[in-house]
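fyi for ur records
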Amino acid sequence: MFTGIIEHLATVKKLSLKAGGAELFLDFLDFYKDLKLGESIAINGVCLTVKEVTGNVVSFDVSSETLSKTTLGKLRNAGKVNIERALRVGERLGGHFVTGHVDGVGTIKEKKQSADQCTMSFSVESIFTDMMIEKGSVAIDGISLTIVNLVDGAFSVALIPYTLTSTTLGFKKLGDRVNIEIDMMGKWIKKLLAHMQGEKGGITQEQLMKQGFL
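which gave:
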């Protein structure tokens, strides 16, 4: 479990494709001194397991499923990625609960720069926006952000200067693809409502009360 508060930018050393997936090598510089084999790290919002640590270089196995559902298979040498270690119980939750299980990929469709912020819009599958709400949370490349505007198949977020300088979104361009993770609350509610609608008679006041909505 993560929070979507990016801690550092790591540099891609190599992405080695192999049968059934890939091996990813990242240079963490000297940011982490106490990494342990087997611990979870969010890489551009994707939860991966530390396989080996050699000096400042950390390696991870990437499954074929992860390559097909995320942008990790498109990483290039010397590129930058967002990294965040797993949340410790008792720590401050600065963003929102992020699982590191990416739902799919979105595309940057618009960037509007103003004096104090940048508004960035993304196109996604309609099934994603069906689970979003305005002012709700979304993780983009592992960054916890708040949805500003929302239409079918697209949404926007406002980025403050700190986010632009400390994450990969600061140098992303129109047409670039990013990992999207929907807030788990939206996914649970959509599943619950779909189940209730499938029952005879559809959604009733009694069902809403039973589930705590009323």
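Helices lie at 64-69, 126-129, 161-166, 184-198, 205-210. thats all i got for now
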